[in-house]
Amino acid sequence: xxxxxxxxxxxxxxxxxxxxxxxxxxxxxxxxxxxxxxxxxxxxxxxxxxxxxxxxxxxxxxxxxxxxxxxxxxxxxxxxxxxxxxxxxxxxxxxxxxxxxxxxxxxxxxxxxxxxxxxxxxxxxxxxxxxxxxxxxxxxxxxxxxxxxxxxxxxxxxxxxxxxxxxxxxxxxxxxxxxxxxxxxxxxx
Length: 189
Known about the structure:
Layout lengths: L5 E2 L3 E5 L5 H10 L14 H11 L8 E7 L5 E11 L4 E8 L9 H16 L4 E7 L3 H9 L3 E12 L2 E11 H14 L1
Parallel strand pairs: 5-6
Antiparallel strand pairs: 1-2, 2-3, 3-4, 4-5, 6-8, 7-8
Helix pairs in contact: 1-2, 3-5
């Protein structure tokens, strides 16, 4: 495990590095599921490198993105991100991405997100996290519920796809919710 920050049963999280840019771009380019994201950036390795540079430009960082890697071979399978970290009010938005369809539906996303929540709550001392999904993305909404998030509302007519307005579903999670979800996940393993 290289530069591991948080370690789980099968995965670990480490800081994203410029060397990840090529696999990030490949994952975005090969994505077939239109329900996952409305806009996937970066789309090229050059754009990914620029985005990674920007992550580390301000201190403390406003966003922290961590690579989710398999413990068995250090292969990066996706990214877990804290966006718009408010260090005073101890809040942030979370986002996650698993690159390959072959790595989805294997529990990696849930394990990686629970590791991100551990980092946010136990290492950064954050109090509350939020996430949202585009309404047709039922798989991501179900994953958030499994990770301890609770429904918190919706943004009406948040985006347009194929000429139709869609809502975004908002979720939030507190440390106690995450602890309960983590315990349930561990019992199910």
